[in-house]
Amino acid sequence: MSRTEGTRRWLIAQLDRIGVDAPVFFSVIARAWQLLTGPVTVTLMALCFTPEMRGYFYTFGSVLALQVFFELSLHIVLINVTSHEWARLSINENGEMAGDEVSQSRLASLLGTSLRWYAVAAFLFVILCGPGGAVFLARGSLPLYDWILPWSVLVLLTGGLLAVQPMTAILEGCDQLKVVNQYRFRQAVFGTLVVWSIIVSGLGLWAAAGSAAVRLGWELHLVRIRYRPFFRSFGKKSVSTSVDWSLEVFPLLWRLGIQGIATWWALQTLTPVIFEFHGDVEGGRMGMTWTVLIALQSATASWVDTRRPKFGQLIATGRIEELNSLFIRCLSISIVLLALGCAVFCGVLVILPQIEWGIAQKLSAAFIGPDEAAILALGILLFQIPAAQSIYVRAFKVEPFLVPSLVVCSMFAMTVFYFGKSHGVIGAATAWSCVVGVIQVPVWSVIWMKIRHRGLKKSL
Fold first, then answer.
1. How far apart are CA 184 and CA 186, in angstroms?
2. Cα separations (Å) of 34 from 128, 172, 340, 454?
3. Is 30 in contact with 22 (CB distance < 8 Å)?
4. Which distant-in-sequence residues (6+ apart) come within 8 Å of 164 by Cβ?
5. In terms of pTM, does the model score above 0.70?
6. Percent of the chain scoring above 70 in pLDDT
7. Which of 74-78, 126-130, 156-160 shows the lowest per-residue confidence on average (mean pLDDT)?
8. 410 and 266 in contact (C-beta within 8 Å)?
9. What are the helix (H) ranges across 174-227?
């Protein structure tokens, strides 16, 4: 064995010890790229965007997240249902689906129906969210001509991404996360370069549309070129056995839809509330801070999120003890890494105002204060727990979070709205973190323990 080969194997072994397989690796480096290049993007926006433009830029993202009301988190159901079928399937040397005929037929029917669902969802999203978002954004201080065209193009591109989503969800459920995450890494790299170019060129809010265009381009390449034989093979299958949507999809879907709306309230209301009651400048500061924290949470959540197909396969084959061991290990790693990332970020916010350098001062002014950021960071750290528990529970193809989601959604809406309006950023941050820590974490933990015990009992 050569020295290079020995080093490579040692490195792979060390990565495996901390739960980093190929899907996690590509997911993490995509997020790492965003985190490493994020300071450059933030600096460029601080130098080239007015505070008002930053407010619009981040509010764009919060409003676009309303797509959850149209697709109702169907992609999560698709991943979970597909993963159970994929335990008896594979991809052959021609890149086509192979294996159990019943499972192939069920997957073909699942894809066909979901494509029609998402086509309708994308259409409704474009015709409703586009004008509705424009009415909300018109309440800000920027002239209409500065943002209306970039906003319109961004909505159309987002609709395109929504229409492609069932195919990428099927790929994830078919344990193709290594390739999918490779593409997401490319999206991150090319998207960042495009955003930088647009910002430097003085095209302002077109940066958001440019990023969406890159994402859509790579998604289409993935499903139409890279996996063309795979999806073409779906059309060759005679659908003799179909997935019963009334029994296998809708019972989980409508519950997940409400859960998705609750998640929207949890993750996307802070910036619009501050934008509405305290202006686009304060909205921009909240948006920039929140973007960094969500990027940290998303990167570290990869240790659990990329295991969705694996969780489903372990459940389908009755290996519940292995499932629980894998889940606890991945969740522990993600929490430790998120805590480190939040500590570093808050430390930077403390140091920036002390640096007598123009760019440092502009960066400091672009974020909320370190005290408010620390409160949000604590909330994000706590939020990692129920987010991971939801993934675990849904792998059993159940959704017991309906009533808790309604409660949490209502609490987020009332507390963030009230305290954000009356006390600004510090009020909204404290309200958000308290709801997560006092209500969501305990309730989700009780539900997770019940499902875990039920799974162990059935496996005996």
1. 5
2. 31, 22, 17, 39
3. no
4. 118, 216, 219, 220, 223
5. no
6. 91
7. 74-78
8. no
9. 177-200, 206-221
